[in-house]
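Support request from a user on the community tier.

User writes: "When I paste my structure tokens into the form, the page sometimes reloads and wipes my input. The last time it worked, I copied everything first. Here is what I submitted, just in case something in the input itself triggers the reload:"
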């Protein structure tokens, strides 16, 4: 009996012959092919970007990567493809980057199968493309332009917004300040057009949530090196009425970081620098976001930035719409994506959806210090009859957008 058992053990440990191994492999392969449907023609997605010239960063900070946005879209393709293949769906992503001064409309016209276009470009380019007669059947997913006007009077029916608007960013910040009862704001704004738009959004948010702009100052960093003069120069623009925080509007990052510890009185710096609001940031880890962060770092070799997240989210949303429609037909996917009932996950702790009145993706916004997530807006206590997410940005009664009229909320 013992000898018989030993012989069976020896046989079980004997390597399979090439023929037996091949037969086993073919059997497993056949089972896998039977379980996974054959992929049909891929759903075409385009990534179109206007390259923008930016000033050199201060304080030896890392510059904004040239591939910001594009690498997020690439990760979105990988994730969507991994999900789609289980039901026989495939996706393709073509990337086109337009140099400063080149015609982005001509670049769009060269695209084939241009139903879905992830667009990373300034607002003027966004509107120029959305208004093209040949683009009326397209869906542009804006990941690069935060301009509130694109969600207001200048909205377009073929334009969805994945990146939060400036109004959403400043609403998130002022909600936090109101919760902390830091309601007196001294505002310092730079000279760039984006700085003026951010300052305008901050004033609107302050009025909306009961905070006050107690003083305003302008600061132009040109003509000197603020790294050498900040100790003296910022003492003057940050003097004024009693205030709880100094808010800075410096979207290009030309001086705002140097305000920290250089204000006339010891006050926190908030706004575009200091404690800032963003769609995403390196410290975000909750709600399994650490998994997304890890996959992105493995792909791109760097941390995921807000426009990267928006690029990933845009492609992910298209992929999710295709999965829900169980189709790669562009018309069916577009109908699902733009339906008022469409929801999609984004590693932000709750389902995300596009607002029925302006095409903006409603989403939480993070309040970030470089080393940590300080809070996540909407802040506790700010309520809304539909969803607290609609306390961020233009609510339906506030928006002048009429392009989506008739779409159910």
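"...and here is what came back when it finally went through:"
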């Amino acid at each position: 009996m013992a000898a018989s058992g030993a012989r069976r053990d020896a046989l079980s440990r004997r390597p399979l012959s090439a023929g037996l191994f091949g037969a086993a492999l073919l059997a497993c392969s056949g089972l896998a092919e039977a379980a996974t449907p054959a992929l049909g023609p891929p759903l075409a997605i385009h990534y179109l970007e206007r390259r923008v010239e930016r000033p050199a960063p201060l304080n030896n900070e890392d510059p904004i990567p040239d591939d910001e946005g594009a690498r997020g879209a690439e990760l979105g393709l990988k994730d969507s493809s991994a999900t789609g293949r289980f039901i026989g769906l495939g996706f393709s992503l073509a990337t086109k980057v337009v140099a400063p001064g080149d015609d982005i409309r001509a670049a769009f016209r060269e695209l084939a199968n241009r139903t879905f276009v992830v667009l990373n470009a300034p607002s003027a380019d966004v509107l120029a493309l959305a208004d093209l007669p040949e683009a009326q059947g397209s869906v542009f997913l804006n990941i690069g332009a935060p301009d509130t006007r694109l969600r207001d009077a200048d909205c377009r029916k073929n334009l969805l917004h994945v990146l939060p608007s400036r109004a959403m960013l400043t609403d998130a910040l002022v909600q936090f300040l109101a919760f902390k009862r830091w309601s007196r704001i001294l505002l310092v704004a730079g000279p760039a057009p984006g700085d003026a738009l951010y300052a305008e959004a901050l004033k609107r948010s302050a009025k909306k949530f009961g905070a006050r702009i107690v003083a305003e100052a302008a600061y132009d960093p040109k003509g000197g090196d603020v790294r050498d003069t900040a100790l003296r120069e910022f003492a003057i623009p940050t003097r004024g009425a009693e205030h709880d925080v100094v808010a800075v509007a410096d979207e290009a990052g030309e001086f705002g970081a140097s305000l920290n510890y250089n204000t006339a009185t010891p006050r926190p710096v908030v706004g575009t620098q200091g404690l800032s609001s963003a769609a995403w940031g390196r410290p975000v880890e909750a709600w399994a976001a650490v998994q997304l962060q890890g996959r992105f770092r493995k792909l791109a070799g760097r941390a995921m930035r807000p426009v990267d997240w928006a690029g990933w989210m845009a492609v992910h949303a298209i992929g999710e719409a295709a999965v829900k429609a169980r189709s790669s037909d562009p018309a069916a996917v577009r109908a699902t994506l733009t339906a008022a009932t469409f929801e999609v996950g984004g590693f932000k702790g709750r389902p995300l959806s596009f607002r029925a009145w302006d095409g903006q993706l409603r989403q939480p916004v993070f309040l970030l210090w470089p080393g940590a997530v300080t809070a996540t807006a909407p802040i506790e206590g700010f309520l809304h009859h539909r969803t607290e997410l609609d306390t961020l940005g233009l609510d339906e009664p506030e928006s002048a957008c009429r392009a989506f009229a008739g779409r159910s909320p």
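Agent notes: The reload is a front-end session timeout and is unrelated to the input. Residues 306-325 form the longest helix (20 residues). The longest strand covers residues 43-50. Escalated to web team.
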